[in-house]
Design brief:
Among the domains are: 75 residues, OB fold (Dihydrolipoamide Acetyltransferase, E2P) (Beta Barrel), CATH 2.40.50.100; 222 residues, Chloramphenicol Acetyltransferase. Helices cover 24% and strands 27% of the residues. The chain contains nine helices and 21 strands.
Length: 460
């Protein structure tokens, strides 16, 4: 009996998934633990192992096709066994229910380029008082598919067929003759383009009328075609789509407020150098993680979550550390950070960051975060505010340490000053508590010896 192999849900937020690469082919003998394919999640490209054994009878989902999670990816069975007729599941888009649809046919010949059939929806609905009324929505259907000859002709001449009006009977279908007529009437023949520019434009799917020519008498040059190709809209990666959605939801649903304090990091830098000379390599960020983790003990609402109706305090202090990648951002989590020594934190952050940059960070390593730190100090940023990670109530933005003249003990000294900015959810965090938390972090960083090892004061 054949076995249907699903595409598992590998992240918390994925509803759809895309197979980037199949590592096996139809006819291969599959054992448990064999790598079947690679899947792009919102965080990384992950390998999916087989939980079953058998011969790979059929690959159902090809590479690059977006399908819902838990869709059947492949069929395993015995050689010669009848293969079930399974097709890739389509990603469904929610549609508004309409009580009636009326379509008015377009005239036999459209009068303007790009003309299309009109559509009118009559939708019965109720207002808040329970009164029923009709809502009319006007829109347009896209014109019917052009004929294959019309599509091929337009492609060869770098013409956007969506701008060509059709004369194909009542449906208004675009024929090859319509494309030729468009060429004659649109001024297309007055455009000039070099051979190299034309070849590049055809390769990139560009439309000649849309390319601005900067050559003599408006000729489109190779440079013009390259510029137009660079400006083509590019679909966001799965990771960037998820980042865009999550952060947009965060800014829309969480009332952020921000406050900044300056921290004297001179002693931290001095202690770090001493530790490094003694063979213990720790980073500035490790000190920040430890100081923030200890400070969260005294301010539980900074380590909580709010859904708009209730607040949930998290008993554990799990610090998410933002790691920048070439195509996005991931946030691996240092769990129970308040109970770990600096060298433990350093080793764990190094391991997590290395796995993230190699695209091998497992979803488990990104779960359970209760508070996030985003450090852009290594990029020379002197001040910024971060967006709260959904599911948390605050985030700490850490900037660069900058030599700064400071009044100290009645004298002007050059000290290493670093700004930290707290972004907090005003639904459950008051300004005074966020300020006290920020100053608690500041106090610990300005007395870094308290962090090695944890002192009695830190355990309160």
């Amino acid at each position: 009996m054949s076995t249907l192999v699903p595409i598992p849900r590998l992240g918390q937020s994925e509803e759809t998934v895309k197979i980037e690469k199949w590592r096996v082919k139809e006819g291969d003998a599959i054992k448990k633990g064999d790598i079947l394919f690679e899947v792009e999640t919102d965080k990384a490209v992950l390998e999916v192992e087989s939980q079953f054994e058998g011969t790979l009878l059929k690959i159902v989902v090809p590479e690059g096709i977006e399908v819902p999670v838990m869709s059947t990816a492949a069929v395993l069975g015995q050689p010669g066994e009848k293969i079930p007729d399974i097709k890739p599941e389509k990603v469904q888009t929610a549609k508004k229910e309409l009580s009636s649809v009326k379509i008015a046919n377009a005239p036999a010949k459209a009068s303007a380029a790009g003309a299309s059939r009109r559509i009118k929806f009559e939708h019965k609905t109720e207002d808040i008082a329970g009164h029923t009324f009709k809502e009319t929505i006007s829109g347009q259907f896209r014109k019917p598919n052009p004929s294959p000859r019309a599509r091929s002709f337009a492609k060869n001449y770098l013409i956007d067929i969506e701008k060509v009006s059709g004369t194909g009977g009542a449906s208004g279908r675009v024929a090859e003759s319509d494309v030729k007529r468009y060429i004659e009437e649109s001024g297309y023949l007055n455009r000039k383009i070099t051979d190299s520019a034309f070849n590049l434009a055809r390769k990139e799917g560009l439309f000649l009328p849309d390319i601005e020519g900067t050559g003599e008498r408006g000729m489109v040059t190779l440079s013009d075609a390259k510029n137009a190709a660079a400006e083509k809209p590019k679909e966001l990666s799965t990771m960037r789509k998820i980042i865009a959605k999550r952060l947009s939801d965060s800014k829309k649903n969480i009332p952020h407020f921000y406050l900044t304090v300056s921290v004297d990091m001179t002693d931290v830098k001095g202690l770090r150098k001493t530790m490094k000379d003694d063979g213990s390599a720790v980073s500035i960020n490790d000190f920040v993680i430890k100081a923030a983790a200890l400070s969260l003990r005294a301010f539980p609402m900074m380590n909580a979550e709010c859904d708009g109706l209730k607040a949930v305090r998290r008993p554990r202090i799990n610090i998410g550390v933002a790691v920048s990648l070439e195509n996005g951002l991931v946030v691996p989590v240092v769990k129970n950070a308040d109970k770990k020594a600096l060298d433990e934190i350093h080793a764990e952050v190094e391991e997590l960051a290395e796995a993230a940059r190699a695209g091998k960070l497992s979803p488990e390593k990104m779960k359970g975060g209760t508070f996030t730190i985003s450090n852009m100090g290594m990029l020379g940023v002197e001040n910024f505010a971060a967006i709260i990670n959904p599911g948390e109530s605050a985030i700490l933005a850490v900037s660069a340490s900058v030599p700064t003249p400071v009044a100290r003990n009645g004298k002007i000294e050059i000290r290493e000053m670093m700004k930290i900015t707290v972004s907090a959810d005003h639904r459950i965090v008051d300004g005074s508590d966020a300020a006290k938390f920020a100053n608690a972090v500041k106090s610990r960083l300005e007395k870094p010896s308290q962090l090695i090892p944890e002192s009695a004061a830190d355990s309160t």
